[in-house]
Design a protein that fits this description.
By secondary structure, the chain is mainly α. It has 20 helices and nine strands. The strands form four sheets. The chain has a three-stranded antiparallel sheet with strand order 1-2-5. Helix 6 packs across helix 7, helix 9 crosses helix 11 and helix 16 crosses helix 18. The radius of gyration is 32 Å and the shape is elongated. The structure holds one RNA strand of 76 nucleotides.
Length: about 475
RNA sequence: GCCCCCAUCGUCUAGGGGACUAGGACGCCACCCUUUCAAGGUGGAGACAGGGGUUCGAAUCCCCUUGGGGGCACCA
């Protein structure tokens, strides 16, 4: 997704087209839902495409499994021009060959048996009646191939070290190497931005393009993203799909910003960059060549930052959608009536947004605002450090607090604070201790937004009720 | 085993011969603010992997070493 983001930025910056092509040429790994997840991921991040399977375009179809005739024709053309040959070697033989090479500490690679007429005949005989074949590229034995990478400059490879790679598999499907050459040409691709693991096969691609008489696109091999252990980010190494980040309460803008800064920078100080600014300033020259370690802490910070700086109405909408989900799906307790009141939630946002980094954290922080009745505080928590072993004292104080709650003239944070500060002084108790007692009684939590704003928003009725219940608890 | 890429604070990065006592951000520490928790403010610790060159002058250019990453499939 980070690579796609760079692709998208380049397209938007230069007025080009961002084309979505589905590369599904490996039937053994085909997962039907994968494409839907891909769409959902791109959409969530706001990476819209100009051409693709669902929106169509002048180069349809955009799904490789629907373009097989094109690849097969290209393969035939390569054979005819002497740039490729049929290979009848069985997978078993190739496995054995590789194992032997590894054992002997030799470079691995195809030995070229089927390059010759005799070799092919021998392989065919071994394979038996149901002999199937692949098409391999005939790699030159000498010379070197220089690939121009817009980020890294010229990278040169000795052809002798390069393998006769398979271009067309025995099931008639192309490998990536053939398919991209054909499609990049057919679809008039100008820039190929892909991760650096493709760099070693770039010379092959260049030679395939040339053998087919195609013009070469521009290549940019961006660095990888590493896990915190510096190994490649994978399912087992803390990698998550963007959909999982979405489900954990990250904001698309924050993830976009964070990803955009992983391998690219605007200048020496800017961290928070809007989508528009990214588009405006993106350039291949400022991409970074070295791999970047994915720092979840920074993503979390950035998410919190976006939560705090977005317009309150936007945050309210986000929050409301989240809280209204079923309890089992991360929403408020099911007893809370849906839909939530927008204006009430809007009033809570300033108090809550400073205290959460993820949308998913808001539920626990906010539930007591929505719960209709009591909050069932734990008695130990209620007494806290200040009143541990002194339940009578705590109960007395809460009773005084209850009287004030019932009697205070206007139910505002300011007058509540004045009343309770006076009470603390009169009772000879530290204000903070009294406030904590009331906080736990009215919210059920020892960590909550500032007490008096909180009480104002919880309302007199429920505060009175909750104070009463707390007293009974002691 | 062979090939390729990369190398500045723990992490993301600025830097493309003199502006560098190497800047910013996350994280960390301290202080301030403070009714809890945050947020915010101020300050601090913290890096040019090593060795050779080139140059009047190297974080910046070249080479070697080391380290890290990737590739060597009828996967992409």
């Amino acid at each position: 997704m980070r690579t796609a983001l760079f692709d998208w930025l380049l397209a938007r910056k230069t007025g080009g087209e961002f084309i979505l092509r589905i590369e599904d040429t490996d039937r053994s790994r085909y997962v039907p839902t994968a494409v839907d997840d891909l769409y959902a991921s791109l959409r969530w991040l706001g990476l819209d495409w100009d051409e693709g399977p669902d929106v169509g375009g002048p180069h349809a179809p955009y799904v490789q499994s629907e373009r097989l005739d094109l690849y097969q024709a290209a393969a035939a053309h390569l054979i005819a021009s002497g740039n490729a040959y049929e290979c009848f070697c069985t997978p078993e033989r190739l496995d054995e060959m590789r194992n032997r090479q590894r054992e002997l500490k030799q470079p691995t690679g195809y030995d070229g048996r089927c390059r010759s007429e005799e070799g092919r005949a021998e392989a065919k005989r071994e394979a038996g009646a149901d002999a199937r074949h692949v098409v391999r590229f005939l790699m030159p034995d000498a010379g070197e191939t220089n690939v121009l990478d817009l980020l890294r400059g010229e990278v040169s490879f000795q052809n002798a070290r390069l393998d006769d790679s398979v271009l067309l598999k025995s099931d008639g499907f192309p490998t990536y190497h053939l398919a991209v050459a054909v499609d990049d040409h057919e679809m008039a691709i100008s820039h190929v931005i892909r991760a650096e693991e493709w760099l070693p096969s770039a010379p092959l691609h260049k030679l395939v393009f040339e053998a087919l008489g195609y013009e070469l696109p521009n290549f940019v091999h961006v660095s990888r993203i590493l896990g915190s252990d510096r190994a490649k980010l994978s399912k087992r190494h803390g990698a998550q799909s963007v959909l999982e980040y979405r489900d954990q309460g990250y904001l698309p803008d924050a993830v976009f910003n964070f990803l955009g800064l992983l391998g690219w920078s605007l200048d020496d100080k800017t961290e928070v960059i809007s989508r528009d600014e990214f588009v405006q300033h993106f350039s291949i020259e400022r991409l970074i060549k070295s791999p970047a370690v994915f720092d979840l802490e920074k993503l979390n910070w950035m998410n919190g930052h976006y939560l705090r700086s977005l317009p309150p109405e936007d945050v309210t909408g986000l929050l409301k959608e989240w809280l209204e989900r079923p309890e089992a799906a991360g929403g408020l307790p099911d007893q809370v009536e849906r839909p939530l009141d927008f204006d009430y939630t809007l009033r809570l946002v300033p108090l809550v947004r400073e205290r959460v980094k993820l949308l998913s954290e808001a539920r626990d922080m906010m539930a007591f605002f929505y719960l209709p009745d009591g909050v069932e505080p734990d008695p130990t928590m209620l007494l806290g450090k200040a009143f541990a072993g002194e339940p009578r004292r705590a109960a007395d104080l809460l009773s005084e607090a209850l009287v004030l709650a019932e009697g205070v003239e206007d139910w505002t944070a300011a007058s509540l604070e004045a009343a309770y500060r006076a009470l603390a002084e009169q009772q000879g108790v530290r204000a903070g201790d009294l406030f904590m007692l009331i906080r736990v009684a009215t919210t059920g939590r020892s960590v909550a937004p500032p007490l008096f704003e909180t009480m104002e928003l919880v309302g007199r009725e429920r505060c009175v009720l909750r104070l009463r219940l707390a007293i009974n608890l002691l």
